[in-house]
Amino acid sequence: MKTYEEMLKEARQGISETITKESRLEIPIPQSFIQGNNTFITNFTEITNSIRRDPKHLAKFLFRELAKAGHIDGNRLILQGKVISSLIKKKINDYMKEFVYCKECNKPDTRLEKEDRINFLKCEACGAKHVLRRI
């Protein structure tokens, strides 16, 4: 007769790695490069599609947080000024913590709702609703 630990070990070996991953949401790494005095994020719409957010909302957040002007040009975001890629990645992670992940269950299954002039983060997994700051 097998012990519980042996059966558990055997069961874990049969599970693929994709199921055992901690995070279900895989955010693409921002691909950025500096050309002249501008910084280009070439996979910007890919990032916004993966987190299910409006590109204008994330762009506005990045403009404020990085204190840079810029605009969306097709699938890419153009920032006026030189910004290193590690800082862009950090700011996108800050955005995720504040505007994507639920404050109660910490799942990314959320959407932004606007009631009157107040923005809310509504979780589709647990039903929690939190007030968000304005950008």
What does this entry look like structurally?
The chain is α+β, with helices and mostly antiparallel strands and 135 residues long. It has 2 domains: 76 residues, 2-Layer Sandwich (Alpha-Beta Plaits); 31 residues, no CATH class. Helix content is 36%, strand content 24%. The protein is built from 5 helices and 7 strands; from the N terminus they run H-H-E-E-H-H-E-E-H-E-E-E. The strands form 2 sheets. The protein has a 4-stranded antiparallel β-sheet with strand order 1-2-4-3, covered by helices on one side. A 3-stranded antiparallel β-sheet has the order 5-6-7, with no helix packed on it. Helix 4 packs across helix 5. It starts with a helix and ends with a strand.
Provide key terms for this protein.
single chain; 135 residues; alpha+beta; Alpha-Beta Plaits; 2 domains; four-stranded antiparallel sheet; 5 helices; 7 strands
Report the helical percentage: 25-40%
Q: Going across the major beta sheet, what is the strand order?
A: 1-2-4-3
Q: What gyration radius follows from the Cα positions, in whole Å?
A: 19 Å
CATH overall fold name of the largest domain: Alpha-Beta Plaits
How would you sum up the major sheet? Answer: 4 strands, antiparallel
Beta-strand content estimate: 15-25%
Helices and strands, in N-to-C order?
HHEEHHEEHEEE
What is the overall silhouette? flat
CATH C-level label of the largest domain: Alpha Beta
Q: Averaged pLDDT, please?
A: 90
Spans with pLDDT under 50 lasting ≥5 residues? none
Structural class: alpha+beta
- The number of helices is 5
Count structural domains: 2
CATH architecture of the largest domain: 2-Layer Sandwich
Distance between the termini: 61 Å
Q: Compute the number of strand runs.
A: 7
